[in-house]
Specification:
Length: about 500
């Protein structure tokens, strides 16, 4: 005869077991696990794969929860020029496993002083590791528009979120950091909020993560975001031939760089092969282009014209030129410093440009010939040069002002607080010939031109080689579109 206490314990164990079976049955019924397993076994029987367990693993992986961001981190690194920069890392949970995507930062376009750059990068690292990490946790990495909206909202409308970070930053660096964006200053000084580099960097990191999760190239991912279907066009490669301005020897400041516009229809590899002749000299600047001493604006153009004649490349037919003036950097108290100690008023600069274009008809584009504030001069120069030369304006800073009169093209750069969604919006909003100072985004954005610098240096050649590989991939898949038909900018 069993002991009463033992019998009572057996009854309790049986009751607990029955309750567990009932709970398990209810759990599987609600979760529809038996039906999923039945369908999996049915599919397995129909296909009868050699790797049965691998087939089942892939089957159930497709039923797993959607990918989600587990964390984002930022850290200080050094770029190809040895300058302090930012790197963003996005960690995602995909099929219940955490995978890491490491993405380098976008261009900072900060002042060159090392201490100022250090402060910007330190603030960006704090932004990524603290508030942005919390705000993006568990977000869908493939919802680019939503994430970019969060990043822009954080930057523009919620400064109180990062107030503590800025006070910490104050004590770390010993300098006060402004939380609110400063009022827009007259060019050349564009307002740059410390830490804003984190926004553009994280946005690009998330875009690359989403592309990798979906198993597509970044340019395909960006094109899908803007609802662009194949075929894809390869933008015409603009090559920096000569670097002028304040970074080069000599007194000439007016021209930042002289850019080659190849004949439409050439492949990227052809453009490289035909123009390596101007990158052989030893004195090459950071942009990968030749930097020699110039005193007047005519000298670099004469040098290129002579080289083209010697090589049998007719300047003005086979190739054209664009001049990046970056005039906002030369503005000093109501005048532009075209050369060291030589100042020109805005109206005098109009006459100078007209003279250059008349003497060198191969020049078919001027990039930022004036500050945006000198609207009358933009309109005056455009009316004087007619259709022979296009005026291009940099719209990277999302200016809210009216379109510049006479500007027929735009320059885009992925910088600071610019998100991938911002680039998509700007390309759809801006009309005319668009040129990008970026790489695979230019293909996905459907831009006409891309500028990657000179044909020298590992960093730039890596970009050119990647553009060549994209062109070859599209050609092999039969989705390489025709070259853009514009003979010039």
């Amino acid at each position: 005869m069993s002991h009463p206490a033992f019998s009572k314990r057996v009854c309790e164990d049986k009751r607990d077991f029955d309750e567990m079976k009932t709970a398990a049955a209810e759990f599987y019924r609600v979760s529809r696990v038996p039906q999923d397993i039945e369908r999996a076994l049915h599919q397995l029987f129909l296909h009868r794969p050699a790797d049965q367990h691998g087939y089942l693993a892939d089957y159930f992986a497709n039923l797993a929860a959607p990918p989600r961001i587990s964390r984002v981190t930022g850290r200080q690194v050094y770029d190809a020029r040895g300058r302090l920069s930012l790197e963003a890392e996005v960690y995602c949970v995909v099929h219940n496993k955490e995978k890491v995507k490491v993405i380098s930062a976008v261009s900072s376009h900060l002042v060159p002083e090392s201490q100022e750059r250090t402060e910007h990068v330190m603030a960006a690292v704090l932004w990524i590791n603290e508030p942005l990490n919390s705000m993006l946790k568990d977000r869908d990495p493939c919802d680019q528009l939503k994430i970019d909206h969060i990043l822009s909202f954080f930057l523009c409308y919620k400064p109180e979120i990062c107030s503590k970070l800025f006070w910490d930053f104050y004590y770390i660096t010993g300098k006060k950091s402004t939380v609110e964006k400063p009022l827009p200053a007259a060019e050349p000084q564009q307002p740059v909020l410390r830490g804003s580099l984190a926004v553009g960097s994280v946005s690009l990191a998330v875009a690359k993560t989403g592309a990798q999760i979906q198993g597509v190239h970044l340019y395909e991912y960006v094109a899908a975001l803007r609802n662009q279907e194949p075929p894809f066009h390869i933008p015409v490669s603009l090559v920096t031939l000569l670097s002028c301005g304040k970074t080069s020897p000599g007194k000439l400041n007016l021209l930042e760089e002289v850019i080659l516009i190849p004949k439409v229809g050439q492949q990227v590899k052809q453009v490289q092969n035909r123009n390596l002749w101007l990158t052989s000299p030893s004195f090459v600047c950071d942009s990968g282009a030749l930097a020699v001493s110039h005193e007047r604006a005519e000298q670099p153009l004469d040098l290129i014209a002579e080289a083209c004649t010697n090589l049998g490349l007719p300047l003005g037919t086979q190739i054209h030129l664009a001049l990046n003036c970056a005039a906002h950097d030369k503005y000093i108290i109501r005048k532009y410093e075209v050369a060291t100690g030589v100042l020109k008023s805005p109206d005098e600069l109009v006459d100078l440009y007209q003279t250059l274009i008349s003497k060198y008809p191969a020049v078919v584009a001027l990039i930022d010939p004036f500050r945006k504030e000198d609207r009358d001069q933009w309109e005056k120069l455009s009316s004087m040069i007619g259709n022979s030369c296009s005026l291009l304006s940099d719209v990277s800073y999302k200016s809210q002002g009216p379109p510049l009169p006479g500007a027929r093209g735009h320059i885009l750069k992925h910088i600071n607080e610019t998100t991938v969604s911002d680039l998509i919006h700007m390309t759809s909003e801006q009309q005319g010939n668009n040129c990008a100072f970026l790489l695979v985004q230019a293909v996905g954005l459907g831009l006409h031109y891309v500028k990657l610098g000179g044909l020298s240096g590992a960093e730039r050649m890596t970009k050119y080689n990647r553009l060549i590989s994209i062109e070859e991939e599209l050609a092999q898949q039969g989705i390489l579109g025709r070259f853009f038909s514009q003979p010039s900018l």
